[in-house]
Structures are given as C-alpha cells and as structure tokens.
Amino acid sequence: MEESLGLLRIRVRRGINLAIRDTVSSDPYVFITMGQQKLKTRIVKNNCNPEWNDELTLSINDPNVPITLTVYDKDKFTVDDQMGNAEIDIKPYIAALKMGKGLQNFPNGCALTRIQPGRTNCLTDESSIVWNNGKITQDMHLKLRNVECGEVLIQLEWIEVTGCKGLESEGMA
After folding, report:
1. Are 90 and 63 in contact (CB under 8 A)?
2. How many alpha carbons lie under 13 Å from residue 91 in its C-beta half-sphere?
3. pTM, full prediction
4. Which has the closest alpha carbon to 117: 100, 153, 142?
5. What is the pLDDT of residue 127?
6. Whether the Cβ atoms of residue 69 and residue 32 lie closer than 8 Å to each other
7. How far apart are CA 63 and CA 137, in angstroms?
C-alpha cells in the first residue's frame, strides 16, 4: 500500500437505454479496469435500464493511468457481447480533493467545481464535484462509446487510507 496514494470508490449506480444484445433485452454488467486492476459489478438479467448500485474500489498509484468502464452483455454459451465503453477522467476530481483540504466549514451540497461535457471526456451532462457531510464526491453521467446507445451513472469518492502516500505526495502533471 506504500505506493498507493489512496483508494477510489466508484459507485456504479445505473445504466440508461443500454443496447439490446440478446433477442429483446440484455443481461448487462460493468467491468472497470485501471492498469492491472479489474473489477466487475453483478449481472442484471433482462434489463436495458439496470440498477446496479454496486461499489467498486480501486487503489490509485498514478491518477494519470486511464480508468476504463466497459459494459458487457452476459451470454451463457458464447463470449460476452460488448455494449460500449467510456473513460473515467479522475484528474479534475483529484485536483478538487487537493483544493478541498480544510473545507470543514462549507455547507453541504456546495459545488467545488464543475466539469463540462466535451471532446476530451465521456460526460453527457455537467458533472459537479460536491462537498457533502465531510466528503467530496463527483457524480458522472457517462455516454458510452463504440455502441449505438447507452449511458452509465457513477459516483466517485476518495478514501484516505493509513499507510498510503496520500495526495499531498503526488505531483500531478
């Protein structure tokens, strides 16, 4: 853990209008990768608007390493079908965390910064990084790429861990 800056909890909330990969629906799950780390949500059967509400946790050593979210359709007898992917850019979130040290007096719901959708991210809507109950979170509404339709809603939350380097030790490019 000495190499880790801390942990990033990704709450995979739900999918919206995911592509149909079976006859009339899909059995979607989300697969998240960062470097050698691979995490997966549970499978939601026969649903193109699944509610996962699963929490996946990554150890962050370098915030510049891309985090990829890929949605798959679980198949029983063949290879699982890909239903699109998106990249999660955590650099604005990490910058807000560093800025947010010592913000105990901020009111709940206070937006520290807002990220607009653009060509360099997969956001469909403005994404706010918010102070709530002593935590800084970011809700993201991601448009899936390489597929005809589909979006995934996630939330990021940083977890400080004893024995980790922490964000102060990290010089971001």
Report:
1. yes
2. 10
3. 0.92
4. 142
5. 97
6. yes
7. 16
